[in-house]
Structures are given as C-alpha cells and as structure tokens.
Design goal:
Length: 273
Amino acid sequence: MPFEVPATRPTSTSRRLLRRGLLLAAGGAAATLLSACGGGDDCNSCGAGPGGPAAAAGYYDGSTSSGRHLQWIVLETGRYYGLYGPLNAPSSTVIEGLMIGDGTATGTNFDSNTLNDLNFTAQTGSLGSIAGTFRFRSYFDANVAYVGGATGSFTTDYSLRYEDTPSLTTIAGNYSGQLASVAAVTATNFNVSTSGALQAAVAGTCDIAGQLGVHLAGGNVYDVSLTYGPSCGGVSGTTVIGNAKYDGATGSLYIITSTSTFGSVALLLGTKT
C-alpha cells in the first residue's frame, strides 16, 4: 500500500511558466537568464556551475506527465532517485513508487539507461532510460522510455532545501514509518542516534542495523549503510548502501538503499515521533 508524509511541496508552477516564458521570449538574452537561479528564489550558489553530473546535483520538485507528484534527487556522481505519488494527484503527499539509476551529463544534457522504476502499490518493477535537460540549480526535465514501449516525462524545479546544512544531530531521534519494496510495505519504527547509528524494527521479527553519515561531496545529503538481521527472510545478512534526505519542515527522513546492481531496492521512510 502507498504511504503518506506531511505536505512539503512548494508552489512552483507559476515560477516555472514565468521562467520558461522569459527564455522563449528573450531569444538572444537567454545566456544571461540561464545563469540565474531557478524559480526566482534567492540562491547561495548561482553561476555557471561545475561540469558533468555535478552540475545536475540537487533536490527538485515537480510532477510527471501522468499527474504524479515527483521529488527528484540527483547526486554529483550521477546517481538519481525519484519519489513519486499516485496517478493524477500532483499535490498528493502519498509516495507510491521510486525511481533509481545512474546517469551521465554532457553540457546541460543528462542521460541514463539504468532506470529502475519500482511501484510499491502495484508491486512491479520496470526498466528504462532517461533523456533529460537541466540548468545548474534551476530545473531538471526529462523524457522517460520504458522497456516494452511505454513512455512518460516529468518537469521539476530546483529546491533550496538542497542547500540546507546536513547534521547528524539534526536527524537524530525516533521515527515511525514504513519499509517499502516491490515485495511489501511494512510498518517500521527506527531510531537514529547523534552518531548516526540506526536501529530499526520491522513489524514481525526483522531487525535492521545501520549507519548514516554526512555526504562529504556536498548538499543536504546523507550516506547510508544498512544490514538486515538474521530473521529478515531472503535479505537476511545482506548489506545495502544508499543515501538519505531529511525534511526539516516535517521531520521526515527518506532512506533509499540498494545492492550494486539494483537487484534489491528499498525505501525506509519515517517521521519523527
């Protein structure tokens, strides 16, 4: 089943239309506008930005062509995560599925042929590719093509929450939430200590131990390693790695982990109690 977190989505539609309208109308003036920050918000790091995937790094918020709300996360390595909601509900705070993969960037183009799209509600997984266009700390838009012929697209705007300062003290606390994969969505409680140590109890007898640390390459991102206990079924004894995002406005922690080939992908989501 899908699960819900407190609403955090910024209203960016009018800003997007304004920005794209200016770009279309300005023509030769576009070079000046492209170095400006997305959405008209103040930005701590405006400029041409780095090259390669690092230029695309950030948090983004928007929607898909099927009306799903989308939180899009890109790391400087090209690893990306997309948390999406139900069909035709662009304002919904429910998370129904997860996209994960690795991409490369050339100029303002971002491409990936390792997309894994996992729908927790339907308990299905789909492979595909992404062809995207981005501007440094402004927006990230993409077309998606799935194996089998289905297609889609999404548009997102940069979120300044990426520039918040990560801290293990900030995320420390007790959380109530769920562990989601294509196999099941299960109620889970977990704790994160001020040293980043994580202990989770999944409904039933499965325990998970892990460690979070600040992502030293930059951004409001955390690195994660989780090990499943001896009573966790087919994943018992498995260690997975990934990344986490913390939303200070709602006290929600999103932990996304996978094996190296994406054979096992899971989202551990909780809100501070």
